[in-house]
Amino acid sequence: MSVKEIFETMEYGPAPESAGDALAWITDQGARFGHFIDGAFTAPSEGFESRNPATGEVLAELTQASQADVDSAVAAARRAQPGWAALGGPGRARYLYALARLMQKHARLLAVLETLDNGKPIRESRDIDIPLAQRHFYYHAGMAQLMEEELPGRVAHGVCGQIVPWNFPLLMLAWKIAPALAMGNTVVLKPAEWTSLTALCFADLCRQAGLPAGVVNIVTGDGAVGERIVAAEVDKIAFTGSTEVGRRIRTATAGRGIALTLELGGKSPYVVFEDADLDSAVEGLVDAIWFNQGQVCCAGSRLLVQEGISESFLARLRARMDKLRLGDPLDKCIDVGAIVDPVQKDRIAALVEGAGGEVYRADCPVPEGCFYPPTLISGLSPADPLMQEEIFGPVLVASTFRTPAEAIALANDTRYGLAASVWSENINTALDVAPKLEAGVIWVNGTNMFDAAAGFGGLRESGFGREGGWEGLMAYTRPAETSAPLVPRAAPQGDAVEPQAVDRTAKLYIGGKQVRPDGGYARNVHDAQGRLVGQAPIANRKDVRNAVEAARGAAGWSAATAHLRAQVLYYVGENLAARREEFAARLDRMSGEATGAAEVDAAVDRLFTYAAWADKFDGQVRSVPLRGVALAMRAPCGVIGALCPEEAPLLGFVSVMAPAIAMGNRVVLVASEPHPLAATDFYQVLETSDVPGGVVNILTGSHAELAPVLAAHMDVEAVWSFSSADLSGVIEREAAGNLKRSWVNDGRARDWHAAPGRAFLDAATEVKTVWIPYGA
Amino acid sequence: MTLTTSQGSTGLQPVPQTELPRNPGMELDMGWVRAARANRSAIERRAATLPGRRSVKKAHQAAWLARAISCIDLTTLAGDDTPGRVARLCAKARQPVRADLLDAIGLPGLTVGAVCVYHDMIAPAVAALQGTGIPVAAVSTGFPAGLSPFHLRLAEIGESVQAGAAEIDIVISRRKVLTGDWQGLYDEMRAFRAACGEAHVKAILATGELGTLQNVARASLVCMMAGADFIKTSTGKESVNATLPVSLVMLRAIRDYHERTGIHVGYKPAGGISKAKDAVTYLALVKEELGDRWLRPDLFRFGASSLLGDIERQLEHHVTGAYSASWRHAMG
């Protein structure tokens, strides 16, 4: 077209970014890649092709990692790890800094490579993916520098197996590798088979940075390679990907005593109130669901609009959709690029095919090939499968709400909990609704904002663990001290009986009431000398059900002020202290030792400690590059089920209960199996201390029988076990059902008299990051 | 005289197009005005990412820059303006780019959109532009502060129209926005519009002095309701003049007004746009938010004095492949 013609049409025309340098890099490497193991590339071997999804052309041949490859990568990482940790934080910081700088120097190469391999618009890889990846290395260079000073008593896990997805190949690599290396871990990382090239380019940069051999190992291949990494002798697995695979990894790692973090799927709500800046909210949706073709785990894919403005809002949205430009991802003037693979495109099409509601496809040209048009499906209700299922494509589903309360209820009516957006110009509405959304990341009047200083990660079936921020370091460190194996403690047996002055009946404590067990069975409880001291009810699965229901119902506790929770905990301590002699005598009798008084004193002290913490375990304001704040809020997990330790039947019980309820959780506690009566005595203390019914529920009975029921319960957010029974495996396995957080002792002992630090507080809370940009 | 009166020898000026009805205005709708929302952070994000999302290259870039020229209100608003200085500017308006370059891109006869001057310079400008079809715009109503007596501001409009100005750039009373006197702003704008008669009226909001983007949104709506043919960001004399975020707010207000009334109101960013690249970004913003119909001089103008020089250099680069120098292009 001539200038004169374009002068009339005012079309954009092509604005292609050159692929020459990136293709030359691939060619220079022989266009065939092996793995990066122990500081060197292995010889390419049998494998698969990596294609440019926009054109279908083959970019390179990659190697499928064999068992031997994975073994050799893990062995290299294992050899390198002690030296890497011993290098010290400042020493490691130099390497992380060098990697950040190298990524910056080769920014355009990485961006073009990413777009070629993945199909995402060059605008996104150039302006978002690669800068964020660099930022992650800079930030964690700082964390390495500060580790010894700021994280005393924490050390690296060791060797981390890391599996990243195809939607943000280099960025997800950065999220995984930077914190791991900063904390002194070594890694074996597998990029997704569709998008391995930037990971291999990164491996080249590791070589250029002089990173010690074996610190970073990259193996390529499909899900089978991922399974091999999960099965390998690693100390930690970090996975980003689908909820389905996450669940399989949870099951596969259960009981192995290795750490796990999962960043999984989502169906994130995007809530628009009638007083929002509607045009900006429409533009936000472009960044929410048409960013990276909607192939974003935290995509705002579920639009909830206040009913009165719904029609007008959707009209504006459709008009905006028509302006989107689909096409060559290397074109600098393109909004929506190619779907990563024809397999995904077919999957999206199949999901939309069966949709109810009103389907609107953007009125913009759709190129031939692996492209899918921006799509809006409105008029859906929560019952429609598309309102529940993750589509992972450029498809937005929409529904309406009437009130803030209904908006929250609809937003939270999902198995996922990764991210959420809320749009309102009313500060009261926005700030009230934001933290009530069940999500790890919440954006106020914005969407898809990320930064290394702000934690990212999910609730519910969106996984657990955080990436970024101080909380992200918890995923790559563990306490330095290792404890002794926990010796199983059997219940004392005997048949000696003696008449009691007045018979005492221990019951279960559910919903603030003393109740008989559903099954109607009790077990005799003996003291250390084998004398009968009473009976404890045997709770069954129905009692677990009832206790969880009571705990769920006591939601007011989570909304109560921290000051009130502190007051109640102090009062529990006060009332326990008042009955010191009675509790001490009971403990001495059960243990046959004279440690009861000390245990009661320690329990009172623990109650005071967590009463003190209740209003002091604060969130933080994070320094993100934004005019506004990113709040890292400490939110209670919700309902926590816990198996209390056999030893220290009172102190252990209190040490589990107090931090959980101090942070606003409601708990279902299974008492020490051999010595349950300290816990059943304790409900009288609770009853006299203004603890609302349902906040603390106490069961007695078999840990082995109750643990899997609690761990599998879909309405429980977290499960902890300090039982001496061998239950860690079964709990982790059963917890895979709804991917609840689990904290198990892996058969290791804990000194209940020692100061617990912040471990329980961390476990009792989820960090929710609330982004609040502002501007008058 | 109206914007769409004819010709220049090439038929390029004005661009062939359907003549749109002028904005007749409407009753002040305070419900609509009060409902206007502008979230600064979100608007700034959109504005900040736009240049990275839209890019035009090669022939397209040349065409877009030529289009930008056709939309320039070539401006001189200085105390030392003289008839001679204005005549020089008008010569530049008629031949904004060296003839050989315009021939090379196939757009001989390309002119700017208008020449914009103070009242006393209208007559020399009209004389200098005789026969070109290029309209003369005059800033008016006590420009730039708008604080002279109201009857004098009205009279100034009348005299400028009398002197041959086809377009009147009025300044609104910022104090009426800052005190929430929307009725007062509406009444004032209505009176200015009436005083303009057949001349088109551009309402300068002086956005740099309105305090908030929400005020910009509301003032835009009120001025359109009162019959403004164009809304314009700035006088060029405020410390902050045209910006992309302010433009986004005003363009969205224009879109909203069009959706509800069917009327096309024009947009003129003024002040601070001096680079060819910025001009392309503004055009892209207008294209994205309002559509192609607004990329014509009857609905879009740049208020600029130094922008043209940068565009000339870019066009020479397009034609020759070598980077240009300012002294290779005629002064205005």
Task: Please outline what is shown here.
Chain A has 776 residues and is α/β, with parallel strands linked by helices.
List keywords for this structure.
heterodimer, A: 776 residues, alpha/beta, Aldehyde Dehydrogenase, Chain A, domain 1, Aldehyde Dehydrogenase, Chain A, domain 2, 3 domains, six-stranded mixed sheet, 31 strands, 40% helix, 18% strand, B: 332 residues, eight-stranded parallel sheet, 45% helix, globular, disordered N terminus
Word description of this protein:
Chain A is 40% helix and 18% strand. With 776 residues, chain A is an alpha/beta fold. Chain A folds into three domains: 33-264, Aldehyde Dehydrogenase, Chain A, domain 1; 269-456, Aldehyde Dehydrogenase, Chain A, domain 2 (3-Layer(aba) Sandwich), CATH 3.40.309; 508-615 and 634-750, 3-Layer(aba) Sandwich (Aldehyde Dehydrogenase, Chain A, domain 1), CATH 3.40.605.10. In chain A, helix 7 (169-182) links the parallel strand 6 (159-163) and strand 7 (186-190). Chain B has 332 residues and is an alpha/beta fold. Chain B has helices at 30-35, 40-53, 58-70, 83-94, 99-104, 122-128, 150-162, 174-178, 182-196, 213-225, 244-261, 276-289, 307-320, and strands spanning 72-75, 114-117, 136-139, 167-171, 200-204, 230-232, 266-268, 302-304. Chain B has an eight-stranded parallel sheet. In chain B, helix 10 links the parallel strand 5 (200-204) and strand 6. The radius of gyration of chain B is 19 Å and the shape is globular. Chain B starts with 29 loop residues before the first helix and ends in a 12-residue tail after the last helix. At the A-B interface, helix 1, helix 6 and helix 11 of A face helix 2, helix 3 and helix 12 of B. Chain A: InterPro entries: Ald_DH/histidinol_DH, Ald_DH_C, Ald_DH_CS_GLU, Ald_DH_N, Aldehyde_DH, Aldehyde_DH_dom.
